């Protein structure tokens, strides 16, 4: 019996939507795949979720878990609880997760232990398969900081995934050092940058600068949502004071406030002078991309923003002591400055001196999702050869074919 291969893509929080958008398109363009989208509902506000479906032309999710917010344990548990019946119903041959949020890890964990019904077990190029193949896109990133919830999510997800697609060259080294079979690892570039490349022209038509009364290169952008920066009121207040001293009427700071940060900013007691600040809620992708592209400088603790500013060639000061995306520092425009005032001021001086132009990391060229779709076509074998197993009673090892020269895991 010939069957299409069902891949269930998972998204749940803001940075997931930019990553699944190009993957959904690239996979749907390949004949063997039937692509389904699941939204866990980890993020649910219009400005953290739906706006990206509109901005990026992502089809509405086929399945919504509507888990909402909660502690790490409660949210993760709720996703796990609600995801299992979906796998029962959908019986996908692969589950694809992106990034490092709770939705990523929770769904990978369920998929990695889920047994397909006998009729849906299958044979792929490397043996029989009783479970869906778990695919992690943006694998291998490590900040080395285990106090960061995402670092736990990254390690767990990579440890249980079958196929690991890597965006930062350091990720290949990290996975090798952790003993991961290199045949499961593919350096393919950055799907988040696929979205940037595809949306850039449209973003430049946004009227966000006019709406906020800003002029090209005469403003800075701020985003803050890491628990290490925003959960402790004293730490947040100190950080905002540093930024407040940098904001001027000639170069105001635009601060689209993440919901995690909102109540804490209000409680900080900082009065934002409207001549020097533009405070907004979270912005849509196109508006925010235009702001980043035309800013003089960006201050952030976001992962994705470090990557986007690298490709846009805009100076980025990362208000953290570590990054899981070191290529943005070694080849891009990113400077790790932490949260100490002196280092931030030094960083501003370096960033605005024009001595760092940045460059493009290998394969951050808008084609990462296409590379992933090609690898998946290969490992699941051409559709004519792909069969649902009649006697799927044992599992082969989770081997995948060696990398192509273009996607060589050993050569990021
Ligand atoms: C999550 C991710 C983080 C990612 C960020 C992107 C985890 C552990 N964290 O952090 O890696 O960088 O998303 O933005 O997965 N809230 C709303 N509306 C929403 C969603 C959340 O008001 O639509 C509020 C709730 O009060 C919630 C808080 O924001 O408790 C935090 O949300 P949560 O998804 O737990 O973590 P984020 O800080 O958003
Ligand atoms: N972003 C956005 N609107 C905003 C702030 C960020 O569209 O107001 C986009 C940003 O361009 C990037 C993504 O959100 O594509 C980054 O997500 P976030 O910072 O929430 O998460 P992280 O990357 O830190 O996990």
Describe this entry's structure for a reader:
By secondary structure, the protein is an alpha/beta fold. Helix content is 40%, strand content 16%. Helix 13 links the parallel strand 13 (297-300) and strand 14 (316-318). Helix 7 (191-203) crosses helix 12 (285-294). The longest helix has 19 residues, at 72-90. It starts with a strand and ends in a 24-residue tail after the last strand. It binds uridine-diphosphate-N-acetylglucosamine and uridine-5'-diphosphate. Residues 14-15, 18, 223, 256, 282-283, 285, 288-289, 302-305, 308 line the site of uridine-5'-diphosphate.
Provide the helix percentage: 40-55%
E-strand count? 16
- The averaged pLDDT comes out at 91
Arrangement of strands in the largest sheet = 3-2-1-4-7-8-9
Global shape: globular
> What kind of sheet is the major sheet?
7 strands, parallel
Discrete helix count? 16
Question: Ions, cofactors, ligands: which are bound?
Answer: uridine-diphosphate-N-acetylglucosamine, uridine-5'-diphosphate
State the low-pLDDT regions, or none: 382-406, 408-412
What class, by secondary structure content? alpha/beta
**C-alpha termini separation:** 39 Å
β-strand amount: 15-25%
What is the alpha-carbon Rg in Å? Answer: 22 Å
């Amino acid at each position: 019996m010939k069957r299409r291969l069902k891949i269930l893509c998972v998204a749940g929080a803001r940075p997931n939507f930019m990553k699944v958008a190009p993957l959904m398109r690239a996979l749907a363009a390949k004949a063997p795949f039937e692509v389904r989208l699941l939204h866990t509902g980890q993020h649910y506000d219009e400005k953290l979720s739906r706006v990206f479906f509109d901005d990026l032309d992502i089809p509405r999710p086929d399945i919504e878990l509507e888990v909402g917010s909660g502690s790490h344990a409660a949210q993760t548990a709720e996703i796990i609880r609600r995801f299992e019946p979906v796998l029962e119903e959908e019986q996908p041959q692969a589950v694809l997760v992106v990034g490092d949020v709770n939705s990523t890890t929770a769904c990978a964990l369920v998929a990695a232990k889920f047994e397909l019904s006998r009729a849906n077990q299958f044979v792929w190029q490397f043996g029989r398969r009783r479970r869906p193949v778990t695919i992690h896109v943006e694998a291998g990133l490590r900040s080395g900081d285990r106090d960061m919830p995402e670092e736990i999510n990254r390690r767990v997800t990579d440890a249980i995934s079958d196929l690991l697609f890597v965006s930062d060259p350091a990720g290949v080294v990290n996975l090798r050092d952790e003993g991961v079979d290199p045949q499961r690892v593919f350096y393919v570039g950055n799907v988040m940058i696929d979205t940037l490349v595809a949306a850039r022209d449209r973003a430049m038509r946004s009227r966000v600068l006019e709406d906020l009364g800003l002029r090209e290169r005469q403003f800075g952008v701020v985003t803050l949502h890491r628990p290490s920066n925003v959960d402790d009121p004293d730490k947040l207040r100190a950080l905002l004071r540093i930024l407040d001293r940098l904001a001027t009427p000639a170069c105001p700071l635009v601060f689209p406030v993440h919901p995690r940060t909102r109540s804490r900013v209000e409680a900080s007691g900082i009065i934002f002078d409207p001549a020097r600040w533009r405070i907004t809620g979270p912005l849509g992708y196109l508006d925010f991309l235009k702001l980043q592209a035309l800013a003089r400088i960006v201050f952030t603790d976001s992962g994705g923003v470090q990557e986007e500013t690298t490709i846009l060639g805009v100076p980025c000061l990362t208000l953290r002591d570590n990054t899981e995306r070191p290529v943005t520092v070694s080849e891009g425009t990113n400077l790790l400055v932490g949260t100490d005032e002196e280092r931030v001021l030094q960083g501003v001086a370096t960033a605005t001196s024009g001595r760092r132009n940045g460059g493009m990391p290998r394969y951050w060229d808008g084609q990462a999702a296409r590379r992933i779709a090609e690898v998946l076509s290969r490992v699941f074998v051409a559709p004519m050869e792909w069969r649902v197993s009649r006697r799927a009673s044992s599992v082969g090892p989770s081997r995948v074919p060696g990398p192509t020269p273009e996607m060589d895991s050993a050569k990021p």
